[in-house]
Design a protein that fits this description.
By secondary structure, this protein is an alpha/beta fold. The chain has one domain: Aminopeptidase, CATH 3.40.630.10. The chain is built from eleven helices and ten strands. An eight-stranded mixed beta sheet has the order 1-2-4-3-5-10-6-7, with helices on both faces. Strand 6 (210-214), helix 8 and strand 7 form a beta-alpha-beta unit. Helix 2 crosses helix 4 and helix 4 (97-104) packs across helix 10. The chain binds zinc ion. Zinc ion binds at residues 1-2, 91-92, 95, 200. Zinc ion (ZN) is lined by residues 1-2, 91-92, 95, 200.
């Protein structure tokens, strides 16, 4: 689940961000959360880093938490630039399936570069929360109304919902948020996103998973349908219809519209990568305009069945080459 809604929570979040730096220092030595069977953060990073050591990928440190022993938010990217596949995961620390699946299938990711696909990989976007099983980087509270913000909060870069003439928020929610979103926007110029896959879990889902379809090509996208098929084939129940708890209609496992029938504008990194226009330092400039942005939301089974959850995400990661190819065909058939 990736709703941010920080427009309403920003003031409180800034206050909490300051307090959380103290909390992070105090708990840096605390035991890491692994009791659901997840890999340690160090274990994940070692797997991802084989892309750099064995396959000559570049790695970037996006943000370093200042406390002693603080984690880095890192990215890995292919040396070849150009229209790219973006794979994002781990924005919420209590959703470990995506980061673990990418680690498990790292050779499939490496294979993409070998077949010439430019790739940007942000596999564990919220590392401090991952090792605490927190949702947000700044607080153990799960409820966003209690001041938690997401690393991918992009409202300060996105047009406001009424007129589109000013940024939706005055400032970034937190220091790592600013570093992460600015990195994404910068890199999107050199690696324009053609296909974005953002792996999440929904801990509140009891009826099954669903997939958000965003981007310029949000409606009726065959690539999104293929992702729902991969999840169903991995024994993940997918909701055929109904609405999400935000009132968004689900059509055959896919959510491509908000509760009022408009495009999904949730202030997330997915909306940022989809955006045709963004605000940078107060100026309106062209946005990344990704045609296909897919956000996977699978049930988290209250923290149990991790193997099943990782297996479903791993099926998507193993199929990235096919999804990339299908997306290319879809874009060729439908001019932007
Ligand atoms: Zn999430």
């Amino acid at each position: 689940m990736r709703r941010s809604r920080t427009v309403y929570a920003t003031v409180r979040a800034v206050a909490l961000a300051t307090a959380s730096l103290v909390a992070l220092s105090a708990s840096a030595a605390a035991a890491e959360y692994v009791k659901d069977g997840r890999e340690t953060l160090a274990g994940l990073l070692a797997r991802y880093d084989t892309l750099a050591t064995d396959h000559d990928w570049q790695t970037d440190a996006i943000y370093r938490y200042p406390a002693a022993g603080g984690a880095d938010i890192r990215a890995w990217r292919t040396r070849s630039e150009g229209p790219a596949l973006w794979v994002i995961s781990g924005l919420h620390g209590e959703e470990p399936a995506g980061p673990n699946a990418i680690a498990q299938e790292i050779e499939a990711v490496a294979g993409l570069a070998i077949s010439g696909v430019p790739v940007v990989l942000l596999p564990v976007s919220n590392p401090e929360a991952y090792r605490r099983n927190w949702r947000y980087p700044n607080t153990a509270e799960r409820d966003w109304r209690q001041g938690g913000y997401s690393v991918g909060d992009s409202e300060y870069l996105l047009p406001d919902l009424e007129t589109g003439t000013t940024p939706r928020a005055a400032r970034p929610s937190g220091p790592e948020t600013e570093a992460y979103t600015r990195y994404v926007l910068d890199l999107a110029r050199r690696y324009p996103p053609l296909l974005v896959i953002d792996l999440h879990e929904d801990e509140l889902s009891t009826e099954g998973g669903y997939v958000y379809s965003q981007g310029v090509r949000a409606d009726g996208n065959p690539v999104v349908a293929e992702v729902t098929r991969l999840l169903r084939d991995s024994a993940i129940p997918i909701r055929g219809d109904g609405r999400t708890r935000f009132g968004e209609p689900i059509v055959d496992g896919v959510v491509s519209r908000d509760d009022r029938g408009g495009p999904i504008r949730d202030g997330s990194i997915d909306e940022l990568l989809s955006a045709r226009e963004v605000f940078v330092d107060g100026r309106r400039v062209p946005g990344p305009s990704a045609p296909t942005v897919i956000v996977v939301e699978t049930p988290a089974y209250a923290g149990s069945k991790l193997e099943l959850r990782v297996g479903a995400h791993a099926a998507v990661v193993r199929s990235l080459r096919e999804l990339w190819e299908l997306n290319r065909q879809v874009l060729e058939a439908t001019p932007r």
